[in-house]
Amino acid sequence: MMEIKIFTPYILPTTKFFLIFTCVFSALLYVWNQSGNLIYLVLSFIPFLCVIAYGKPLIFIQNILIGSDKTITIRHWFGKGYTEKISKALYEILVTEDDIRSYRFRIQNKLFQVSPCVYNQGDHLSELLKPFTGKKTISVKSARLE
Length: 146
Description:
The protein has 2 domains: 9-59; 61-142. Helices cover 40% and strands 28% of the residues. The chain contains 5 helices and 8 strands; from the N terminus they run E-H-H-H-E-E-E-H-E-E-E-H-E. The strands form 2 sheets. A 4-stranded antiparallel sheet has the order 1-2-3-4. Strands 7-6-5-8 form a 4-stranded mixed sheet. A hairpin with a 3-residue loop joins strand 2 and strand 3 (71-75). The chain is elongated and about 60 Å long.
């Protein structure tokens, strides 16, 4: 029987920020509606962008499945999953000074980025993916964290 390891993202911090920015956005729109002052409408643009940025991960919730046959399946909350051999799909890694920050996969002509730090048991996910970084020529880019 094939063993499959499932990795799900942390959604609690994302949900908190989504709710905070939604409240700020709503409050600014309410104040603009009541006062008619356009500055509140302009200021509401910033939290609106944050609502979109934090809302996308909540809508798509990307799960990672690693099979014992060395395949990776990336699936969202809805829709089909995309499956490929890890060694074939992995095409790029992003590294910081001492650590691999993110893995990039090309599966069925779709591009996916997997950052182990945002998943439950992310250390274990990183341990499973790290052996594949030396199997073939993979582009290595420096991740700039600012």
